[in-house]
Design brief:
Layout (H helix, E strand, L loop, with lengths): L1 H16 L5 E2 L6 H4 L6 E9 L14 H26 L4 E4 L25 E2 L4 E2 L22 H9 L5 E4 L15 H16 L6 E3 L8 H6 L4 E4 L4 E2 L3 E3 L3 E5 L2 E2 L8 H18 L2 E6 L5 H17 L4 E4 L1 H8 L5
Parallel strand pairs: 1-9, 2-3, 2-13, 2-14, 3-6, 7-8, 8-11, 12-13
Antiparallel strand pairs: 4-5, 10-11
Length: about 325
């Protein structure tokens, strides 16, 4: 597996140097429609804020539950220094948040965990296999002090208290598959309405959505529920947003921020800085995303260089949240 990842990383280097990744899409004359004056580019950064909820049915781990809990603890370790960097360099992030993280505690109702949420049928997709038991079996139904990998009201409060104007987005209530062929919409609507309810208790209005595992679907329902954006990952792209329905925008991923085996620190930094420079050169939208369970070396050695470069190029590339950008696209102010 390590050899395969190494070879993939080396091939990616070749494609990058040849200008084949990220792909430059869209007509340059449209840049004025999608890039606010006087900037040459816009950079959006989002984080899939999941703690343990993402990996508990992972096909890529021998012990998915252990991996999930470890990811949760690593996320907790990383978020404070990431927020420090955001404040230092004035970089806002859209935190696509699993709704269960809003809860301080939860408990079964008549023996059932979250009975208000309809269950999906058993399914298998590219990343997960849910083949037995109940979807919420791993939910400890305790509180954030006892099981901090499953609840995060303290982290949400920390994010909202910082100087950088972060956005809390939506990543479903329990990290479900949202694709139309698996999710008929009932579970999707219940999960999103639960997120809207919990966010409302914090005085927050959810407008930006990220489908867990890139399982794109239920877009009409997303629009009906008042969301203005969703992020896709059909291949790394420097391009422009795509409108769906009246005010719902697709934001196409440019690059994932992560540590790749076979790349040294210097190459990671070079690669991401070059992507930013290409976005400026070609007047395109740059959409970056990451999991906060990043390796420590990425948080300490790579991310500061990326943020510092964005700050240095601030006169030409504007860093926005998904919500502030789509608000501008829909006729609002920045």
């Amino acid at each position: 597996m390590k050899i395969k990842r190494y070879c993939k990383a080396q091939l990616s280097k070749v494609k990058f140097e040849l200008g084949m990744s990220p792909i430059i899409k869209g007509k340059a004359e449209k840049s004025g429609t999608y890039i606010p004056t006087p900037f040459k580019s816009v950079c959006l950064i989002s984080a899939d804020f999941e703690l343990a909820w993402a990996s508990r049915y992972s096909k890529g781990a021998l012990d998915p539950l252990t991996k999930a809990i470890n990811d949760g603890h690593k996320t907790r370790e990383n978020i404070p220094p990431i927020l420090d960097l955001c404040d230092k360099y004035e970089i806002p992030i859209t935190w696509a948040t699993v709704g269960h993280l809003f809860l301080e505690k939860c408990s079964p109702v008549n023996g059932a965990k979250h009975p208000e949420i309809p269950r999906l049928p058993y399914f298998e997709n590219r990343y997960w296999e849910y083949a037995q038991g109940d979807w919420f079996d791993h939910d400890p139904c305790s509180d954030y002090s006892t099981d901090p990998a499953w609840f995060a009201p303290d982290l949400i409060k920390e994010i909202l208290s910082r100087e950088a104007k972060h956005e809390i987005g939506c990543h479903t209530f329990s990290h479900i598959d949202c694709s139309d062929n698996i999710n008929n919409g009932a579970a999707f609507a219940a999960e999103i309405n639960k997120c809207i309810e919990l966010a409302g208790e914090w005085g927050l209005q959810l407008r930006s959505f990220v489908h867990p595992g890139h399982t794109i679907g239920n877009l009409e329902k997303l629009h009906e529920l008042g969301f203005t954006s969703f992020r896709t990952d059909y291949g790394d792209t420097l391009g422009y947003p795509v409108r769906h329905f009246e005010n719902l925008w697709e934001l196409r991923n440019t690059a994932g921020l992560d540590w790749r085996e076979g790349w040294c620190v210097a190459y990671h930094v070079y690669r991401y800085k070059t992507i930013i420079e290409r976005a400026i050169k070609y007047n395109r939208l740059c959409v970056l995303w990451f999991h906060p369970s990043l390796p420590t070396r990425f948080v300490e050695q790579v991310l500061p260089e990326i943020f510092a470069h964005l700050a240095q190029r601030a006169p030409e590339i504007k860093c926005l949240t998904h919500g502030s950008y789509t608000n501008w696209l829909n006729g609002g102010s920045l």
